[in-house]
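Researcher: Re-running this chain for the archive, since the previous output was lost when a drive failed. Same request as before.
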Amino acid sequence: MALRLYSRRAKAGAKYFVDKTPRYHVISAEIMRLFSDAHFIFLWRNPLAIIASIIETWGKGRWNLYEFDFDMFDGLERLVATCCQAGDRACSIRYEDLVGEDPVGRQRLFRHLKLESDASQSRQFSAVTLSGRMGDQTGSGVYLAIT
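Model: Regenerated structure tokens:
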């Protein structure tokens, strides 16, 4: 099923695929087994920033964390376990390092993916639109470039 879904979304000859589904933690281990030669990016974010984002984005400023306890607790445990299993195939990056002023996080990510680290490309990422009803409602408007 995953191969069929991904192949429908990917352009012909695509080398990289981004899946930023909010609940990908449920199937992260299965995805790694399915794509046994693939490399994975684990994007970690400060838990307090996650909580603030959930409240602002999905709660419209109201406390709603009880709706996301599955993701906040079970999800984190699953992702840590999956990342550990990935070994050298995984690259862990803090979200704050990727969107911050220091280019070290972006450069590490590009090295892991064997991509040239071109500063002009990092400013163009906001031109790419990813559709989906659970997409990033806030960050895509705030962060117009990866620095």
